[in-house]
Amino acid sequence: MRLDIKRSIKPVKYNEAIEFLEKRVDEVSKGKSNDLIWILEHPSIFTTGIRYRENEILDKKIKLIKTHRGGKITWHGPGQLIFYFVIDLKKRKKDIRKFINLIENTIIETLKSYKIFSFNDRKNIGIWIEDKNKIKKIAAIGIRVKKWIAYHGFSLNINNSLDAYKKIIPCGIKDRGIINLKMIKNLKYNDIREKIILNFIKNLKKKVS
Fold first, then answer.
1. Number of domains making up the chain
2. Are the C-beta atoms of 208 and 98 separated by less than 8 Å?
3. Which of 69, 79, 146, 166 is the most exposed place for a label (fewest CB within 10 A)?
4. Is 39 helix (H, G, I), strand (E, B) or coil?
5. Does the structure show a pLDDT above 80 at 171?
6. Is 171 designated active site?
């Protein structure tokens, strides 16, 4: 499996990241580049998927970037891990549901290594935690598939502020909350990026190859 891994230390502007991904999709499609994993953070930004609705914006003053990914409205910013990928499903099984399941398992397995137990939900995509008898989202997933190349990725809340989520209905879900890892267990999570990369590669070899 030919796979490049890119790690950005400084925050990357959202538009620049998406432009890079779109270019990489084209290169992978033409056989000019390898598949890609890219770990980064974004400056504070609100983005929408193709299924969002205007009534999910509670603060009309916020600036939105509209994207072609799946899903609805969400926030990205400091303290949140962004895991982007460009994966050619033509070289594997052309099964989008199985690929989403691979992403879900990657996050669940990574959190389990910290003794944090999470779960997926077929009706509400993402990864969830039960906290104080309430279901809260810890990770958001949004992918797009173009010519059987899957890209975009997922975000995982580590120690980010949750204040921005008060300005939107995150992912269009009203009856569930948002949480970060620091609120669950006050750890440093310094190794979480490498753990999640290793779990993704392991699952990619096992489930999609």
1. 1
2. yes
3. 166
4. strand
5. no
6. yes
